[in-house]
Amino acid sequence: MPNIIFHPQKFILPNGLSVKGKIGDTILDIALKNKIKMEHACEKSCACCTCHCIIRKGFYSLSPCKEKEEDLLDKAWGLEKYSRLGCQARLGKEDIEVEIPLYTVNHVKESN
Q1: CA of 32: how far to CAs of 22, 25, 66, 67, in Å?
Q2: Is 35 a residue whose pLDDT tops 60?
Q3: How many CA atoms lie within 13 A of 23 on its CB side?
Q4: Which of 22, 24, 47, 101 has its C-alpha lying 20 to 30 A from 5's C-alpha?
């Protein structure tokens, strides 16, 4: 079982979190199972980009990015080279580190 390290995020995860995940689980499902309130406006159907996350370690261990996900990522706030949608990125065998951006296209939170 790979380790998933969620980096600290000011609004939803101030202290960060390290958890175990099963191969094939999505980053979003792992976050939600561990009470991380990661945005997911389309209910995991790959129809928005609110679950955008940045993979800081282990990017190539994840499932390949499909064309639909790539198209949606183009709309994500703070897009980076190693960005993925949490609802689409499935764990492989390697540990990963995930950063959840402070903002999404649909959601801006100014204070706690």
Answers
A1: 14, 11, 23, 25
A2: yes
A3: 5
A4: 47
